[in-house]
Structures are given as C-alpha cells and as structure tokens.
Amino acid sequence: MHLTRVARWSVRAACLAAVMLVSACNDSTTPKPPEPGQPPQPKTSMVPSLVTSAMAADAPAAASATAAATTPATTPAAPSELIARGKYLTRAADCAACHTSADGAPFAGGVPLKSPFGTFYGTNITPDKTNGIGGWTAEEFYRALHDGVAPDKALYPAMPYTSYRQMTRADSDAIYAYLMSVKPAAVPNRKHDLSFPYNVRMAMRAWDWMFLKDTLPDAAKGQSADWLRGRYLANALGHCAECHTPRGTFGQLDKAKPLGGAALARIAAPDLTPEALAARGWTVKDLQTFFGTGIAPQGSAFGEMYPVVHLSTQYLTPDDLRSLSTYLLGDAPPAPKPLPESPDTSKLMAGRNMYLAVCAGCHAADGTGKPHVAVSMLGNSTVRQKDPRNLIVTILDGVEAQKFPGLEAMQDMPGFDKRLTDAQISELTNYLRVAYGGQAGDVNSEIVKQLRQK
C-alpha cells in the first residue's frame, strides 16, 4: 500500500511548479474567504506534513507592523468563563500535539513534522509578541484558522485550516482568549526545511483556490443531535480527516474517500469508515471508552494516536465522547464482525512457535493479554487491519511504556528488529493475523524488508 515515492513526487513537483507559475502570474488572487502536559514522542513513525495536516502547525512569526499598530496597548482581560471554554476547545482541537515539544514550554512550538515535501516545524502560539501571536487580533487568529492566512504570510496546510475552516467564530474567539492567557515564551520559530518548489509560499494561493472548501464529506450517515455534534468534533475541531483520509496528487484531501485511511510514512492511519470499524470489532461504546481512556477491548492507543488521547480526547466530556463515537459509526451502526471460532493455523506452526517464544510471556499463550502489562492480541484492532503494516512496524520498533488516565498503564514492548529476521517476522505476523485477527496469512519477507528499511 505504501510504495516508493520518488517517481510520484517527481511528477508532483513538476505539477506544483506549473501551479506556481499560474499563481505568480495572478499574484492578486486572494485565498477563499491544555494546559498541556509534555506530549509523548511516538516511537513507531514520523508523520508526513500534508498527511498530518491534522497535527501540524504552520503558525505565525511576529505580527505585522500594521497589526501591531492597530492592537491596543492594553488588551482587556477575557472573562474567566471564556478562557475556561477556550481551554477545553484547545484540547479538543489537539493544538498541543504540534505546538508543544517534549522539552519545550507549552505552545512554544518546535515539533518537527517530516514529509515528502521537507520538514515542517510547529510554531510558537504563545502571547509572545516577537515570536508568537501576541500581536494578533482575534480577527486575524480566526482568519488563520478559517482561510490559512496569517498577518504576514499564507500558511501551509500542514496547519489544518482545511478542517478548522468549519470552526465557528465563537469557538475561535474562545481558543484565542485562552492562548492569550498562557505564559508568553520567547522561543524563536524554526524555519521550515522545504525543498524547491515547495518553499515558495505564493503557490499556496493557487492551492487554496483549488482545494480549500467550506465542508468535508461524511463517511457515516446520521441526523441525530449526537451525530451532528460528533461531526463538528471530528471534522472541525478534532480534524480526524487530516490523518485518516487519503491524499491526492497535490497533497489535498481525497474527498471521494472520507476517513478511508491513509499511509503515514511507515505506518497507516486506519480506515475509520463505519464498515471498516465494524470489521475490526468496534462499537460506539468501545470507541467512547478508547477515546476517553486510551484502552478498549480492541487494544490501546499507541504511535501517533497516543498523543491524541493523551493531549486531547481524554479531556472531552462524556457527552462529547459519545457524540464523536456516534458520528464515526453513524446513527445506525453496523454490527461488529465476529472473529472465526476455529481459525486454521495448521500451516503456521513456525509463526506459532515464534509467538510462544517471544510474545506469550506478556500477551499470554492464548493471546488474551495481561491486565496492566500487555494488551490482548485476540481481536486486537491492529491485528485485524487488512493492511499489515502497523502490526509489522510495531513488531520491528516496539512500543514505549504507556500511562493512561487513572492508574492504567502498559509496560514497554521491545522491538525485535535486531532479534528476528524478515522471514521470522513475516511468519509471526501471519500467525497473529490468522489466529487472532481473522485476516489472511499473506505477509512475505519482502514486505517486512521494505518496512524495515524505511
């Protein structure tokens, strides 16, 4: 599913160069009108920028001279209720994931996001007037979220304004009020490391004209109050589509496949359509538990999803968690698919022996896992994915120790990239998929080799 991209990006570069020429010739075109903890650093992947528009930030440098001149010397303090609401919405919008580095001040930026276009860096969105957004007005902040335009430049869609465009002005103003209340951090922004022609910002005018839309398509159907609220949480605030929807030639969201899953470098953001979720055993109740705690019968949040739970969804109210889960599966969710009762593993004895030797100590001989130690392999959502890449990469790289809300935690899982050969990992992967996931045992050594080398 994740093929070599050199030829593909060469074509894209040529196409984008043509777009830039159009933009340059038409330079007057205007684009269409929680307090966080330190985010854990995912161990399994590096997320591409435009695929992770959902989590990146191309935030602002200093405010323009004009904006500074029109900003009052003393800004009236926002009401405490507005700031509290803004804090909740900032968490729901997962701003910390890209604007707070592991060793940095809250919202001071610096998070790297690697992509086929180069490396983007989340920027400083504290009230610091030199490096952050302290010189911005609420109107300018809203325009950045809605139109992808900062006071001094166009933003790259690594900042997910393609989703935030659906955010209400009231919610934008509340987030602005909260960010203006946090401690300013005099941390300079890192310049994006982008190759030509992607480092020419004027091309974004043409990109926005072609691809920036007011709404996103839905993968599920519904009209209930929960479904409608969930749509707003998923599409506007949570910007789920930015990672879980495939991308087109120019890095735009493929509107024909909403939430249909997308490759994120070595891993894949899973398919979140109702049919795909049901095929992996998900229910509304289990999704609600997963978003709220990071753990469900289908497994625990890891990789890129761990910071989403850690910094964002665990803080949602029970009502919002229910709404988000309802939106993903729809008002009439499909029944979860059961696993085969007696899977035939007779031809997978090498994989079974490997599982018993290196996995059963933590995940149990029957695959049911151990509480507070390791998740169950039986019915595990990653094991049940049609695309085996996430399972293979997890076996190769391992998973860091995880702490979840309350007292729940999972211990560190070591990676086996140095201990097992490509053939052994393919045998182990096939056994897991057939025995515990109801999938085909069709992984070969070449697939493992390609993922190992990425």
TrEMBL record:
<feature type="binding site" description="covalent">
    <location>
        <position position="359"/>
    </location>
    <ligand>
        <name>heme c 3</name>
    </ligand>
</feature>
<feature type="domain" description="Cytochrome c">
    <location>
        <begin position="346"/>
        <end position="436"/>
    </location>
</feature>
<feature type="binding site" description="covalent">
    <location>
        <position position="362"/>
    </location>
    <ligand>
        <name>heme c 3</name>
    </ligand>
</feature>
<dbReference type="GO" id="GO:0009055">
    <property type="term" value="F:electron transfer activity"/>
</dbReference>
<feature type="binding site" description="covalent">
    <location>
        <position position="240"/>
    </location>
    <ligand>
        <name>heme c 2</name>
    </ligand>
</feature>
<dbReference type="GO" id="GO:0016020">
    <property type="term" value="C:membrane"/>
</dbReference>
<feature type="binding site" description="axial binding residue">
    <location>
        <position position="99"/>
    </location>
    <ligand>
        <name>heme c 1</name>
    </ligand>
</feature>
<feature type="binding site" description="axial binding residue">
    <location>
        <position position="363"/>
    </location>
    <ligand>
        <name>heme c 3</name>
    </ligand>
</feature>
<dbReference type="InterPro" id="IPR014353">
    <property type="entry name" value="Membr-bd_ADH_cyt_c"/>
</dbReference>
<keyword id="KW-0813">Transport</keyword>
<keyword id="KW-0349">Heme</keyword>
<feature type="binding site" description="covalent">
    <location>
        <position position="95"/>
    </location>
    <ligand>
        <name>heme c 1</name>
    </ligand>
</feature>
<feature type="binding site" description="axial binding residue">
    <location>
        <position position="244"/>
    </location>
    <ligand>
        <name>heme c 2</name>
    </ligand>
</feature>
<dbReference type="GO" id="GO:0005506">
    <property type="term" value="F:iron ion binding"/>
</dbReference>
<feature type="binding site" description="covalent">
    <location>
        <position position="243"/>
    </location>
    <ligand>
        <name>heme c 2</name>
    </ligand>
</feature>
<dbReference type="InterPro" id="IPR051459">
    <property type="entry name" value="Cytochrome_c-type_DH"/>
</dbReference>
<feature type="domain" description="Cytochrome c">
    <location>
        <begin position="81"/>
        <end position="183"/>
    </location>
</feature>
<feature type="signal peptide">
    <location>
        <begin position="1"/>
        <end position="24"/>
    </location>
</feature>
<keyword id="KW-0249">Electron transport</keyword>
<dbReference type="InterPro" id="IPR008168">
    <property type="entry name" value="Cyt_C_IC"/>
</dbReference>
<protein>
    <submittedName>
        <fullName>Cytochrome C oxidase Cbb3</fullName>
    </submittedName>
</protein>
<feature type="binding site" description="covalent">
    <location>
        <position position="98"/>
    </location>
    <ligand>
        <name>heme c 1</name>
    </ligand>
</feature>
<dbReference type="Pfam" id="PF00034">
    <property type="entry name" value="Cytochrom_C"/>
</dbReference>
<dbReference type="InterPro" id="IPR009056">
    <property type="entry name" value="Cyt_c-like_dom"/>
</dbReference>
<keyword id="KW-0732">Signal</keyword>
<feature type="region of interest" description="Disordered">
    <location>
        <begin position="27"/>
        <end position="46"/>
    </location>
</feature>
<feature type="compositionally biased region" description="Pro residues">
    <location>
        <begin position="31"/>
        <end position="42"/>
    </location>
</feature>
<feature type="domain" description="Cytochrome c">
    <location>
        <begin position="225"/>
        <end position="332"/>
    </location>
</feature>
<keyword id="KW-0408">Iron</keyword>
<dbReference type="GO" id="GO:0016614">
    <property type="term" value="F:oxidoreductase activity, acting on CH-OH group of donors"/>
</dbReference>
<dbReference type="InterPro" id="IPR036909">
    <property type="entry name" value="Cyt_c-like_dom_sf"/>
</dbReference>
<dbReference type="GO" id="GO:0020037">
    <property type="term" value="F:heme binding"/>
</dbReference>
<keyword id="KW-0479">Metal-binding</keyword>
